[in-house]
Amino acid sequence: MTPLWDTYLRPKTLAEALQAMLTAPKPLAPLAGGTDLLLDLQQGRHPPVRTLLDVTSVAEMTRLERRGDQLYIGAAVPVARLTRDPLVVAHARALTEACALIAGPQVRNVATLGGNVAHALPAADGTIALLALGAEAEVASLEGSRWVPLRELFLGPGRSALHPERELLVGFSLPLLEGNDASCFRRVMRPQGVALPILNCAVWLVRRGDEVDDIRIAIGPADAVPFRATQAEECLRGQPLTDTTVQQATQALLEQARFRTSPRRASADYRRHLVIFLFHDTLRIAWERATSPPS
Question: Are strands 181-190 and 196-208 parallel, antiparallel or unpaired?
Answer without folding.
Answer: antiparallel
